[in-house]
Amino acid sequence: MSDTTLSRRAFLARTSIIALSVPMILSASTQARAAQAQRAEFTTLSAEEAAEFAAIAARIIPSDDTPGATEAGAVYFMDTVLSGSHKDYLPRMQEGLIGLQALAQSRYSSLTYHTLSTQQQDLLLAEIEDEEFFRSMRFMTIAGTFTLPEYGGNRNEIGWKLMGFEDRHMWMSPYGFYDADYAAKGE
Amino acid sequence: MAWATYPTREEVDFVVIGSGSAGGIMAKELSSAGFSVVVLEQGPHLQPGDFKHDEWDYTQNEGLVWGSRKGHPQTFRRYEHEKAQIVDGAPLGYAHNVGGSSAHFSGNFWRLRPIDFMEASVLGPITGTNFVDWPISYEELEPYYTKVDWEIGLSGVEGPWDPPRSRGYPCPPIPVKSSGVLLERAAKKLGLTAYPEPHAILSQPHNGRPGCIHCGFCNGFGCEVGAKSSTAVTMIPLAQASGNCELRTGCTVSKISTDERGRASEVVYWDENGTEQAQRAKSVVLSANGAESARLLLLSESASHPDGLSNGSGMVGKNLMFNGSSRVAGLFAEPVNAFKSVATTRVIHDFYSIDPKHGFYGGGGIDERSLSRGLPMAAAMGSGLFSGKSWGKEYKDAIATEFSHACSFNGHTTSLPLSTNNVTLDPDVKDKWGRPALRTTFMNHKDDIATMKFFYDRSMELMEAAGAIQIEGRFSGEGQRGGVHLLGTCRMGNDPSTSVVDRFNRSHEVPNLYMVDGGSMVTSGRGQPTMTIMALAFRAADHIIQSARRGEL
Predict the structure, then answer these.
(1) Which residue, among B344, B368, B391, would best test binding to A if mutated, counting the most A CBs under 10 Å from its CB?
(2) Which of B252, B260, B266 is nearest to B305 (CA)?
(3) Do A32 and A97 reside in the same domain of the chain?
(4) Which of A32, A101, B318, B387 has the most C-beta neighbours closer than 10 Å?
(5) B535: in domain
(6) Which residue in A has a C-alpha nearest to residue B374's C-alpha?
(7) Among residues 32-91 of chain A, which lie with CB inside 8 Å of chain B?
(8) Comparing C-alpha atoms, which of B522, B355, B346 is closest to residue B450?
(9) Do the domain assignments include residue B199?
(10) Residue A27 has pLDDT above 70, yes or no
């Protein structure tokens, strides 16, 4: 990515005084990029759970003229953390999914959620949006879309680009419109 | 010079418990004066290169601030008749690493002013509170504030409201951000004065450390170049260089033992392998922060100290204060990009003391911040701030502009000391070591809430004057449920029946025990206590060194 290269060069130029720290930082960011290698297999979630969670995530942060949770790979993030730091979430999310599937069955006679139309999917989520399962799904979807990419989500920094955020080691002023204007007017 | 090493069975001059804002200073001052020092720190010794821009780990996985996920559950309740419940995360938040919370703070360094030390005399008592004067004055602390400026490393410029100072700042202020410009222009319109926020973050090289590179991962994160003036990069390297200090990390203290004369004799702890150890010492400095120092004194109960060590007054753990807060967020037409650089660059101190004619006690400052500390994940978790939607297309559209086009004006305010706001030992919940968990009981005094509301109202006026398109605000009208400024729990005073330490941070009850951290603060200040915690540490160290040189260890 050209922006990253540019910022790294600027970073090196400005901070030669801290030569000791720079190799450590660069090495850390190289490792992070290597770890970002994109997987296709799931190790924690079953194929059905992955399809269902991905479909829910796609309604929370939908893809339209810009990419959403699907392209960010939020479900791969879930697959990573649900067997690691947040494995305590897994049983309750699995249980919550069974509840949602029961609702899909009673409302639309469907055994699964992801096979419903997006309109039906939205109506079902609206029914459960005050429930613990929805809050967990929202939490995991957002975390997976905006996380540091080494956890498997936020692929190609899709989430960050959506928000106008860029992860750099260094910024120089002006940072935004108003401080540029302030400097221009000599305030 | 390498770290010193001392056998546990040999009596060292000092054991310092904790290596944070106060402990790091105590370690450096005492070891540099030639005394043997062992520092016990729960967390690891992270180096600048270890700190990452990893929001998931630091904010959701207890990377620096440990809670239930790391085996350190805490419980919370409003009132003493209620049963406290385990709370996710850490209601009393502090970083577990060398440098303590100075590694992850936002570095806003406000001195107290002369009025803070004698406010109770000036305003009169406040019924139902323990609001009293400090036993020391601003003039007594001023030389140590200046020591913090230069030895810790501050950036700033003397403002119109500053108390008298004996020397200027070593570094100029951090450059203003768009959010700071919005606050400054709004202040001008309303006849108020915004001036550059003083920081314990270097704007240019000082004492061999580099200036800030404005990466934005500041509040809640460690500095990857060492520009943030944490004790981990300012004091600990000097303690090491003294040749008289041993730093033991991964060490969790279980008890301070006393001998038959009632003096602290050894500190019992689990080392990094989980093996119980006990370090003998001539004196003990407890700098574990305003929550953990009180907890450790309570845990150190014995037949001769049935209510906990140094607790003859019954004041250990009481008078817990957090500083109040309020926040008003505004959405602007043009990019603000508040996620870049330090947390805040302008501050308003026109309301340092609210006129008593309003009918309540309080005061504070207003500065400008990014939403959700400028963190993309946190912003998205809370977003839909202006649209009201929390998922779906409208939500997605909202977060696409809110993150880059918004900032907030935040109030940082006084808290009153109350006996009923305290830390105690939970009777049921245990931590991973089997120690009773930290239990917090807290409900703000009504004046704390009135002050938060006052600052919320002023921030609303400022945000309107700043020209925000949409405005949303909040404050803890129902009372705060935790905090990161942990103050008042080992208060300083001249009277042993109403305070825990004397005017030099020495225990009234155990003559070779010193409590040096936010716990000794008598009142809360206006919202940024760390500079005062550090100045008190330099002052206590100065006094201890003089006593020790007279052979009074």
Answers:
(1) B391
(2) B260
(3) no
(4) B318
(5) yes
(6) A165
(7) 32, 59-62, 64, 66, 68, 81, 85-86
(8) B355
(9) no
(10) no
Residue A165 with chain B: CB contacts under 8 Å: 339, 376, 403-404
Reported in sequence order, the residue ranges of B512-553 that DSSP labels E, i.e. its strands, are 513-515
Give the residue from B220, B218, B199 showing the smallest Cα distance to B94: B220
Range of the domain at A62: 47-163
Instruction: Please give the Cα distance from A133 to A153 (Å, whole number).
Output: 20
Residue of B nearest to A16 (CA): B210
Claim to verify: residue A19 and residue A74 sit in the same structural domain: no
Which chain A residues touch B174 with a CB distance below 8 Å? none
Measured between CB atoms, does A17 come within 8 Å of chain B? yes
Give chain A's count of helices (H) and strands (E). 10, 0
Q: Which residues contact B382 (CB under 8 A, 6 or more apart)?
A: B371, B372
- E strands, B307-454, where? 324-331, 346-348, 364-369, 406-413, 422-430, 436-441
Q: Are B260 and B18 in contact (CB under 8 A)?
A: no
CATH of the domain at B2: 3.50.50.60
Whether residue A159 lies within 8 A of chain B, CB to CB, comes out as yes
Q: What is the residue-level pLDDT of chain B in tens, covering all 553 positions?
A: 689 999 999 999 999 999 999 999 999 999 999 999 999 999 999 999 999 999 999 999 999 999 999 999 999 999 999 999 999 888 999 999 999 999 999 999 999 999 999 999 999 999 999 999 999 999 999 999 999 999 999 999 998 889 999 999 999 999 999 999 999 999 999 999 999 999 999 999 999 999 999 999 999 999 999 999 999 999 999 999 999 999 999 999 999 999 999 999 999 999 999 999 999 999 999 999 999 999 999 999 999 999 999 999 999 999 999 999 999 999 999 999 999 999 999 999 999 999 999 999 999 999 999 988 999 999 999 866 787 899 999 999 999 889 999 999 999 999 999 999 999 999 999 999 999 999 999 999 999 999 999 999 999 999 999 999 999 999 999 999 999 999 999 999 999 999 999 999 999 999 999 999 999 999 999 999 999 999 999 999 999 999 999 988 7
Do residues A63 and A97 share a domain? Answer: yes
Whether residues A127 and A68 share a domain: the answer is yes
Beta carbons of B521 and B532 less than 8 angstroms apart? yes
Which amino acid does the sequence have at A15?
A: T
Number of domains in chain A: 2
Size of interface A-B (CB pairs under 8 A): 163
Q: How far is B144 from B140, CA to CA, in rounded Å?
A: 8
CB pair distance less than 8 Å for A165 and B396: no
Q: Please judge whether A176 and B178 are an interchain contact, meaning their C-beta atoms are less than 8 angstroms apart.
A: yes
CB distance B216–A125 less than 8 Å?
A: no
CB-based contact (8 Å) between A174 and chain B? yes
Q: What is the pTM of this model?
A: 0.94
Do the Cβ atoms of B349 and B116 come closer than 8 Å? no
Cβ separation B341–A173 shorter than 8 A? yes
Of A28, A143, A178, the CB nearest to B181: A178
Tell me, what's the pLDDT at A13?
A: 37
Closest by Cβ to A178, choosing from B336, B379, B392: B336
